[in-house]
Amino acid sequence: MTTILGIRDLNRATLARQFLLARERTPVAEAVGRLLGMQAQEPKPPFLGLWSRLDGFEASELHAALHDRSLVRATAMRATLHLMTAPDYTAFRATLQPVLDGALRVLGTRAQGLDTEATAGAARRLLRERPRTFNEIRALLQEEFPDVNERALGYAVRMCVPLVMVPTDDRWGFPRASGFALADSWLGAAPDAEPAVDALMLRYLAAFGPASAADAQTWSGLSALGEVFDRLRPRLRVFADDAGRELFDLPDAPRPGPDVPAPARLLPEFDSLVLAHADRRRIIADAHRPHLTTKNLRVRAVFLWDGFARGVWETEYKRRVATLRLRPFEPLPPEAADALAVEGEALLRFAEPAAKETVVTVG
After folding, report:
1. Record's InterPro entries (predicted)?
2. What is the domain extent for residue 292?
3. Is residue 199 part of a domain?
4. The pTM is what?
5. Is residue 236 part of a domain?
């Protein structure tokens, strides 16, 4: 008989893998590898996400990993920027190429006249000379392809050429207009040529399981993963959720009980935890999910209480006063507000070390 896992079972299992039941003292690159990447549409969120997960995390650790090239910031899952280990990027870039190819559809009529192969070749030639910003790349490509939309040229390069962003000494590792380098030049090795979808799905389960094929498709952007999980079935444990859907997991993965305590935690914008499943009830209730994204598709920062997203938060820094505002979806019990205030004060001290005063508000 198939074991049924309730929402709290899934919540605790996922939090255990995401370093969110207890902070661990783990090297940064190892942690990012266990998380199978962190969404990094902007450079700051991974710093906050690692602070929330790792015991004693210092920003200098992430800076060092970016500069020694053990971590890279590059386009990956869902055709979005992620922080990944260099080995994971090279191992899975080809696996994700169908997602990146599919993303070109957003160009619509702007793609008129676009030859992706010729554009990619020209971009590689330009980037062999030195890293360049996309403002430079687009302008130079426009000279070579004057009849093609400039933005379409740039987007094609992002999707079709394996690139990594070049870190700097900026506070969060990257300037607003970052330089890009060819991945093979930056890492000294080209991405693997053969797709490795089975390996990617096993790693996904290790980081986000138990999960369904639909969950994995939502996280990765890949399609038709049902057949992949059918192929992997002999190596996996199979469960069901409260709606009878099949969930897959690694046999020896952690699955703590539903009543294991989960501490108050603050997750940054774009955190992968809230984006990794089609059914996100293990983290956020369906009624609250519309609050997760803004009209311009920014993924808001959320706070966890008893393991679940109970609201969003934001910070402000003015006149050396750092303020963190918690905006609950529903009224919080006093003990939740107190625990989140303590966590918020600590996060502000990390994020704004020059602040003379830190303030946490609720409401």
Report:
1. AlkZ-like
2. 284-362
3. no
4. 0.96
5. no
